[in-house]
Amino acid sequence: AQSVTQLGSHVSVSEGALVLLRCNYSSSVPPYLFWYVQYPNQGLQLLLKYTSAATLVKGINGFEAEFKKSETSFHLTKPSAHMSDAAEYFCAVSDTGRRALTFGSGTRLQVQP
Amino acid sequence: GAGVSQTPSNKVTEKGKYVELRCDPISGHTALYWYRQSLGQGPEFLIYFQGTGAADDSGLPNDRFFAVRPEGSVSTLKIQRTERGDSAVYLCASRSTRSNTGELFFGEGSRLTVL
Predict the structure, then answer these.
(1) Which residues of A touch B91 (CB under 8 A)?
(2) Are strands A64-68 and A73-78 parallel, antiparallel or unpaired?
(3) How far apart are the CA of B56 and the nearest CA of chain A, in angstroms?
(4) What local confidence, expressed as pLDDT, does residue A28 receive?
(5) Residue B1: is its pLDDT beyond 60?
(6) Do residues A53 and A65 touch, judged by C-beta distance below 8 A?
(7) Which end of chain A offers a freer environment for a tag, N or C, measured as fewer CB atoms within 10 Å?
(8) Max CA-CA distance within chain A?
(9) Rounded distance, CA B77 to CA B66, Å?
(10) pLDDT at B100
(11) What are the angstrom distances between the C-alpha of B108 and each of A45, A60, B45, B90?
(12) Distance between CA B104 and CA B112 in Å, rounded?
């Protein structure tokens, strides 16, 4: 079965600083990978997805992620954090067997003024 | 509709009661998913429908949980004899089968509290 591991349940950065949220995956086949964001009391919103077309994926709100097969990683970055980026971020991998997504446990991003 | 709609947004019930949670997917999406999200955790897969049939119900925790999608659109998640441990946010998602990348579109969830 496929799985993802998100290192760091909480990350705190200063406004304007680099954001780096880590995700490592486990998969026996080439995966599809996703980052979702969840704001308080809301559903999950897709930030970006990797579907093997390009290893560097750009998403909404200035976020991007790089697929590194050798490291089985799909880390999420943003050059300059904004207060509005404070939310919970989830990495997910497609499970082709069940056609569903398997999610990591999430990373809560805090942005300090 | 424009997005995935879930009702109720909040449900408070007593231990032992029966609960139904409803999901109305994006129009035309034939794939529908239920996930459960406990506090501080990522969403956990429960069940997946392709059309009217449950293609994969391996995530349902026990036989108190059941879901239906009789006409291939709206789905209802049913929980019998609720327990305090069932308290969570239940998320519904849908996907177009024209999408081969597995992207899911989520509703805002139904928060269930069992007292």
Answers:
(1) 43-44
(2) antiparallel
(3) 7
(4) 73
(5) no
(6) no
(7) C
(8) 44
(9) 6
(10) 67
(11) 10, 19, 16, 9
(12) 22
pLDDT digits (tens, 9 = 90+) for A50-107: 987 788 999 999 999 999 989 999 999 999 999 999 999 999 998 665 578 999 999 9
> Of the ranges A13-27, A60-74, B36-50, B90-104, which one carries the lowest mean pLDDT score?
B90-104
Gap between the Cα atoms of A109 and B60, Å rounded: 30
Tell me which DSSP letter residue B58 carries.
T
Is A105's Cβ below 8 Å from some Cβ in B?
Answer: yes
**β-strands A19-26, A3-7: how paired?**
antiparallel
Out of B40, B44, B107, whose CB is closest to A43?
A: B107
Residue B52 tokens, joined: 């009217």
Structural tokens at position B79: 């929980």
